[in-house]
Design a protein that fits this description.
192 residues, alpha/beta, 6-stranded mixed beta sheet, elongated
Length: 192
């Protein structure tokens, strides 16, 4: 606070000294200012046809509608992994993001995600699965398999190396474990 007052005082003093040294007043009255041509100083209205105003307004409203649809209404594509030979497998294309970006698998079974990278951007050079402690480089125009076995149901996220592009793996409970769950005593009492 002390230095701020000192700085402001110094700048004001410097301005007064410069004005006195040059002999010109710091402010001029409006009447003393040099006159200019008033026609060139004023903004002039440009008339535009009604159709161009309507076209610009329509294009703007269309872009707003597209953005609202993109961010609020469009849903990411979800796909279930196919099981063959005891391994759930799916191909994920890496091209400006992940396609599909939502993958559905069963808990307790090995999963193989085959990432095929088309996009040369440096952001998509790596894919990370923080919950499974996996970080894998993705060479361009090659398929890179990533294998893991999810033990717990839930939603697990995977991201690019810069954490900009994301996808999720939805791990559903095993179908056999759903049928073999023990029934609690309170549920048995309610049935009787």
């Amino acid at each position: 606070m002390k230095y701020r007052k000192f700085t402001l005082t110094s700048l004001a003093s410097l301005g007064v000294l410069l004005a006195l040294a040059t002999g010109t007043p710091a402010q001029m009255a409006h009447e003393e200012m040099p006159s200019t041509n008033a026609e060139h100083d004023q903004f002039q209205r440009i008339e535009q046809p009604l159709w161009s105003k309507a076209a610009v307004t329509g294009a703007g409203l269309s872009l707003i509608g597209l953005e609202l649809w993109w961010f609020l209404l469009s849903k990411p594509k979800s796909r279930k992994a196919t099981a063959s030979g005891g391994i759930q497998e799916i191909m994920v294309t890496v091209d400006g993001g992940y396609e599909p970006s939502q993958i559905v698998v069963q808990a307790g079974q090995p999963v193989r995600l085959n990432f095929y990278r088309k996009d040369p951007s440096s952001c998509l050079e790596e894919v990370r699965f923080p919950d499974f402690r996996i970080a894998q480089d993705l060479p361009i125009n090659q398929t890179t398999p990533i294998e893991f076995t999810p033990s717990q149901p839930g939603r697990y996220e995977f991201t690019c190396g810069m954490n900009m592009f994301r996808g999720t793996i939805e791990v559903r409970p095993e179908t056999a474990s759903l049928n073999s769950q023990p029934v609690s005593q309170s549920a048995e009492l309610n049935r009787a």
